[in-house]
Amino acid sequence: MIGGRNAGATRFCRRSMNVPAYLARIGYSGPTDPSPETLRQLQVAHLFTVPFENLDIYLGRKIACDEERFLHKIIQLRRGGFCYELNGAFAALLRALGFRVVLEKPWLADVGFGDSFLEPLRLETEEEQEERTGRTYRIVKVGDVCIVQRKLDVAIWKPQYQFTLQPHRLEDFEARCVYQQTSPESHFTRQRICTLATPDGRITLSDLKWIKTVHGQRTEQMLKDEEEWRKALSEYFGIRL
What we know:
By secondary structure, the chain is an alpha+beta fold. 29% of the residues lie in helices and 24% in strands.
């Protein structure tokens, strides 16, 4: 399995974890053998239950590249997180279930990019891969860099992000993690975001804007105040700050 946003093949130190608690958190009761189908089901379950969110940045809470903190936040606190947190925790779960970072027939698994591919992508360059949402993706290679692209039209492909197959440790991303949560140039410091995939689309809170997408049809509504925002955060995402 290849995982991690802009992270290449990510390698983390091994620590014990409560696998049943993690599986319960994502509402998963299916097979746990390290197979492509299990990987697919786990990623979908994760994306449907654990939101992509940057709320700790606005609460003034430092996000450190620490696997135990990621797991505690997602499992015990029933929160979400942004790229490093979500993929860091998911990588720990996959390791605990017997997945290797790189399989003989590798896949790209990612639960930390927000609105992107729902199911893992085969790591085969240039092959178009259509998923059940109707979206089509492919992975192209330029030198040593792999680029995930989403098809917008017949001949229009939009880059999502890029990665390499070079293994890294979690602490290798500490500097970038600090930048993303402190720099005024980072989009994570510009607005609060909480978003979650659903079986028919996506729900999102972008500051006070409530966005719901169903089968490609998007509706928006402005919430009145912080009280309504917190109510929506609790009702739709299960997050109580």
